[in-house]
Amino acid sequence: xxxxxxxxxxxxxxxxxxxxxxxxxxxxxxxxxxxxxxxxxxxxxxxxxxxxxxxxxxxxxxxxxxxxxxxxxxxxxxxxxxxxxxxxxxxxxxxxxxxxxxxxxxxxxxxxxxxxxxxxxxxxxxxxxxxxxxxxxxxxxxxxxxxxxxxxxxxxxxxxxxxxxxxxxxxxxxxxxxxxxxxxxxxxxxxxxxxxxxxxxxxxxxxxxxxxxxxxxxxxxxxxxxxxxxxxxxxxxxxxxxxxxxxxxxxxxxxxxxxxxxxxxxxxxxxxxxxxxxxxxxxx
Length: 284
Ligand code: CAA
What we know:
- Belongs to the 3-hydroxyacyl-CoA dehydrogenase family.
- The protein is an alpha/beta fold.
- 47% of the residues lie in helices and 14% in strands.
- The chain folds into 2 domains: 5-183, Rossmann fold (3-Layer(aba) Sandwich); 191-275, N-(1-d-carboxylethyl)-l-norvaline Dehydrogenase, domain 2 (Orthogonal Bundle), CATH 1.10.1040.10.
- It has 11 helices and 8 strands.
- The longest helix has 20 residues, at 37-56.
- The radius of gyration is 19 Å and the shape is globular.
- The N and C termini lie far apart (45 Å).
- Acetoacetyl-coenzyme A is lined by residues 18, 21, 50, 53-54, 57, 120, 143-145, 147-149, 191, 226-227, 232, 235-236.
- Acetoacetyl-coenzyme A binds at residues 18, 21, 50, 53-54, 57, 120, 143-145, 147-149, 191, 226-227, 232, 235-236.
């Protein structure tokens, strides 16, 4: 089944808006679903701003920008997703909420539609079993910022059919992403490697082994990474990082995933990284 129309649930979040922008730029009709009008307006304005910046930088033409925007529609009713070939859920990382979203999608979407989740840590088979089509459910895990990062992790559960996996991979390729296939285990491939690295940088800072700038500079200048670990942590969002670490720790009981006290304290204080204006660094 060729994918022509894509729905995105949770499109007003950073990841959701990025996925909508990416799909629209790649030629898909996209429906962004959100029940919050205010956040819908803000998300559309952010997408518009990013596309304008790409025009300024001459990465896309003004006509490309207009065409991408024209492919995006929004709705506060899930029934607007009824004729989508693929729906990508990118709601907050809450299992009960996501199960509810999948059950609702299952009742409104066409029987042949594929349902995907952008979760970075929750068990996808649990979401699949909230539907009557577990063979048509898979993970499509994007990286922030979704329009720029080259990777897409395609995650298959024990129930995902070969056909669904093939469609998910082909869809990712049509977005010009590099595809890797991972099992439905917390962290998949990237976060299994990334989370211990980020947590170790926070532990290093907490025990006073090095200043924040030196930790980040070590990795940027020593390994040629675009951002240091504390910058990446702020970029992901410290609440999201804590959530992912907790899920991975609960599942594995491995100390490498145990959240450092400093991370917990910062989240308690509302220092969530870029999105709140303060994390390991301050942002205007
Ligand atoms: N569309 C288009 N451009 C966008 C964008 C979007 N949606 N979002 C951000 N940008 C652009 C900004 O406009 C800005 O460009 P300008 O300064 O020209 O306006 C640029 O991104 C950010 O500024 P930089 O100077 O940092 O740009 P850069 O070219 O050096 O690189 C980057 C940007 C690609 C983000 C690079 O810094 C990078 O690769 N950083 C690492 C990010 C990373 O690790 N992401 C993964 C996080 S883990 C995750 O997402 C998954 C998980 O499960 C935890």
